[in-house]
Write a structure and sequence with these properties.
This protein is mostly helical. The chain has a single domain, classed as Cytochrome c-like domain (Cytochrome Bc1 Complex, Chain D, domain 2). It is 49% helix and 4% strand. Strand 1 and strand 2 form a beta hairpin. The longest helix is centred in the last third of the chain and has 28 residues.
């Protein structure tokens, strides 16, 4: 009990002094810049777009895949193969949108997912002062982030088509 009280008092003292515990700035949670060349991506407007400007552009998928595998695969799995990974399964990003039949509402849903994705990538994920994902703002450019998002969308589409084919093939 006394050990717990001492630790709690130590955390309170650090909080009052404005210092962080040693694990708060964990260097393993720093986002390294990717080596993948993004100069071949189509030009997009400066800053962050509201929706993915590369949506549906197959030419972006290859660069997005390379960027994903270089920057995201450590936690989310190579080529979005999520099995035994610590990060969430990104193939589930659009699961709520898949049920929306109205085209305009579906686009709005995808826009919401885009916003969530960009916010998560730029700011990272921190829960109860534990860094779960490093912030990539300033490390990944908007074209790089949108290319990764386009790769994820292409894999979600592939998965959906495979499911439809499996249902059609079933007796």
């Amino acid at each position: 009990m006394r050990v717990l009280q001492k630790r709690l008092l130590g955390f309170i003292a650090m909080a009052l002094m404005g210092t962080s515990p040693s694990w708060a700035g964990d260097p393993s949670m720093e986002a390294p810049p990717p080596k993948t060349d993004v100069s071949g991506l189509p030009a997009i407007a400066e800053g962050w777009a509201e929706t993915n400007p590369y949506r549906g552009k197959a030419t972006v998928v290859t660069t997005g895949r390379a960027l994903y595998n270089e920057s995201c695969a450590v936690c989310h799995g190579a080529d979005l193969n999520h099995r035994n990974q610590v990060g969430p399964n990104l193939l589930r990003l659009e699961r709520g949108c898949q049920k929306v039949e109205d085209a305009a509402l579906h686009q709005r849903c995808l826009s919401d997912v885009d916003h969530y994705f960009v916010k998560s990538v730029r700011r990272g994920k921190r829960v109860l002062d534990v860094q779960h994902m490093p912030p990539w703002d300033g490390v990944l450019s908007p074209p790089a982030v949108w290319a990764i998002r386009t790769f994820i969308e292409s894999r979600i589409e592939e998965q959906a088509k495979a499911r439809v084919s499996a249902v059609k093939a079933a007796p």
